[in-house]
Every structure is written in C-alpha cells, then in structure tokens.
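Retry 2 of 3 after timeout on previous attempt. Resubmitting structure tokens to design endpoint.
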C-alpha cells in the first residue's frame, strides 16, 4: 500500500506557536512559517523515538518512552519479541544479556544456551525460553558503555500492552503520540509456533488504538512478515533496509520499484555520504510513492563526515526524508522544528 496524503494528515501535528514582539508595543503574531519540506507529502518529517529516549535512559523502558513523549516525539518505537507463553514484549534483541540483568539471576543460569542465528552462533538467554512472569523478574540495563548506567537494574521490562497503554494515556491527556512498531525476527518466532501477526493485530484491537486515534506504522526487516500483516490489516507498513556490511553478509538487495509497502526504513548510509553530500535515494523512493524513514541519529555517535547529530538531521531533512529515528528526541524535534 503506497502512502497517501490522507494518512499523512492524520499523523502530523500542527505548526509553530505565534511569537511576541519585543518592542513593548502590542504583541504581533509572527509571520507564518514558510519552510517547506521535500517529503513525500510536503508535511514535516516525523521524529521517531528510537526505543524511546534511549540515549538518556535504558531502552524500551517506560521512563525512556515517557521521556520521548514529553520531549515531543511524534512516534515512539517498540521493537517486539515474544515470550515462551506468547506475550509480546519490547526488546531489540531476541536474547537478553545486553539489556537486562539476566546474568545475575542464578535461577536462570541453565537457560544460557547456544543458538545459530542469521548473524552467526551465539550463547545467551533467549526471550522465547522465558515466560512473561519470569521476564518480569528481570530489570533493564543500558547497553552502551558510554551512556548513563545509574538506572541499571531498576526499571522493568515492558510489554507491548504497556506501551499501548502509555500511548492511550497520552492521548487521553490530549497529546497524540504514534506507535512505530517493529516485529523482530518474526520468521524465527513463526517457525517455533509463535507467529506475531495475529497477536499484534488483536492486541491493538483489544486496546482500541484505532478508536483512540493513535497513528501506527508496522515495520520489519522481513518482507514475508510485512506481506502477511498487510493481508490482514490496512495499517501502513515499512520495509526496513539494512546497510553495509550487513546487507552483503545477509545476501539481501532491495528493489524500490517492486516494494508494496507504504515506505522504507533505510539505514542512514543509504542517504548520507561521508563527504557531506546526499545520494538520490530519497528521490528514487519518492518516485515510487514510498515514504522514507531513516535510522538512526545519535547525539553521541555522529556519522563520519558530520560534525554532530544536528548536521546529520539537517542533511536528512534537506534530502526530503519523511521520518527519522533518533536516540535523543529533544534534538530531533528541535532541528526539525527549526527547519
Ligand atoms: O527499526 C528500524 C530502526 O529501529 C533501526 O533498527 O536495529 O535499531 O531496530 P534497529
Ligand atoms: Ca527498531
């Protein structure tokens, strides 16, 4: 399903507030902002809080998501994996060692097992070997050594239901925030009897996201999952595209002309070149009616060739991208709104 202006209108929020003159005379309204965006719809690009405000707090925690909402993110992003008893929870990885304290739980020591994954063999604790009740005995951790560790081992692992509750609560308080939902390794989960399509759809229905006006995108790196999802739902889907060297390692290539999703989720190297110029990727995708969402801009890890995250964001917005995943939503919103 290609993207339409009607959907865009539903997703995007209003414009800048009026300003007050500093002359001491009667306040006058600032001129309407005249900036235009080279997005597919001409509307401003969305800022997607990547795993919540994950630059500030352990990713995929209520604190990280709520901070992103408070900082004005248009969407928060839950990555979804599945427990042994079929519950969708928010983790980036299908294993637990990088972002939880599972290694400190002796009762789970014998759950550490080797598996062969598309990225190679790995010994770890795997989410689908745990029930939700067991997952709920764990606490979240910051995975990047250079980031704040002070809240390690204090914050709960969050279910998909709990993220939806957060968005519903924000909507009830008058603040619409969308959900940019990624199904992680859905082919694997399906192969062990934990198909994700129906639980995601039924979960959203049960929570009443549509009735509450919560915008939703569904994303995945796996086209089979997106096709299966689209067969059962009209929600816009985003085909994630991995950059190099992983694309070559995985043997994947992408053909913009044959994609049937609403858009693509492109690694930023598809667009940003190290000499500071940009590729024609966005134009080619837009020519096919595809939205371009781009991952991931991080204040503390700027891309080679760019002075800082602001420079990356400015270049991406100039190239016409329709959405940007950011670890620091405050920065993303500020640069986007200053455009
Ligand atoms: O899902 C696209 C974006 O979030 C980047 O991918 O690996 O951080 O989930 P990842
Ligand atoms: Ca993701």
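Retry 2 succeeded. Sequence:
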């Amino acid at each position: 399903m290609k993207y339409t202006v009607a959907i865009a209108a539903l997703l995007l929020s209003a414009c800048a507030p009026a300003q007050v003159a500093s002359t001491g005379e009667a306040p006058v309204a600032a001129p309407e902002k005249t900036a235009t965006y080279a997005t597919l719809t001409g509307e401003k690009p969305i800022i997607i809080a990547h795993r919540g405000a994950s630059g500030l707090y352990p990713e995929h925690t209520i604190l990280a998501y709520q901070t992103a909402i408070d900082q004005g993110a248009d969407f928060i992003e839950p990555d979804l994996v599945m427990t042994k008893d079929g519950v969708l929870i928010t983790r980036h990885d299908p294993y637990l060692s990088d972002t939880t304290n599972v290694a400190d739980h002796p009762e789970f020591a014998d759950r550490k097992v080797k598996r062969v994954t598309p990225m190679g063999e790995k010994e770890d604790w795997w989410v689908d070997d745990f029930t939700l009740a067991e997952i709920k005995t764990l606490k979240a951790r910051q995975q990047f050594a250079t980031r704040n560790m002070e809240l390690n081992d204090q914050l709960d692992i969050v279910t998909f239901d709990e993220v939806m509750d957060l968005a519903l609560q924000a909507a009830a308080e008058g603040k619409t925030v969308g959900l940019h939902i990624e199904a992680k390794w859905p082919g694997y989960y399906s192969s062990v009897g934990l198909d994700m399509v129906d639980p995601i759809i039924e979960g959203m229905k049960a929570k009443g996201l549509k009735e509450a006006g919560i915008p939703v995108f569904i994303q995945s790196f796996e086209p089979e999952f997106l096709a299966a999802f689209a067969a059962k739902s009209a929600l816009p889907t985003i085909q994630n595209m991995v950059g190099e060297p992983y694309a070559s390692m995985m043997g994947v290539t992408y053909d913009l002309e044959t994609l049937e999703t609403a858009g693509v989720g492109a690694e930023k190297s598809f667009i940003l070149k190290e000499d500071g110029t940009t590729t024609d990727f966005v134009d080619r995708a837009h020519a096919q009616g595809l939205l371009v969402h781009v991952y991931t801009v991080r204040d503390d890890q700027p891309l080679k060739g760019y002075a800082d995250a602001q420079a990356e964001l400015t270049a991406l917005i100039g190239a016409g991208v329709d959405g940007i995943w950011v670890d620091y939503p405050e920065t993303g919103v500020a640069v986007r709104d200053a455009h």
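Attempt log closed. Residues 50, 77, 79, 92, 182, 219, 240, 265, 295-296, 325 surround SN-glycerol-3-phosphate (ligand 1) (CB under 6 Å).
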